[in-house]
Specification:
Elements lengths: L3 H9 L3 H28 L4 H12 L7
């Protein structure tokens, strides 16, 4: 397995088109990880208190349309 320094050095050598392709791939992978993390947080109930507060504020008329 390559070290992060070896990977960074290889990236430095990429031509611009290959770098764009890699950057797109990394962004897509990052989004995939972020989505999975959010889903895990939802499943674990980490947003329940916020959700309750939002609905309570809306029911009490303390919310407005965006």
């Amino acid at each position: 397995m390559s070290t992060a320094q070896e990977i960074e050095a290889a990236i430095e050598k990429l031509p611009p088109d290959s770098f764009k392709q890699l950057r797109r791939w990394v962004a897509e992978r990052d989004a995939m990880y972020w989505d999975a993390e959010i889903e895990a947080d939802v499943d674990a109930g980490r947003f329940d208190a916020i959700r309750r507060r939002v609905f309570a504020d809306d029911d009490a008329g303390r919310a407005s349309e965006m």
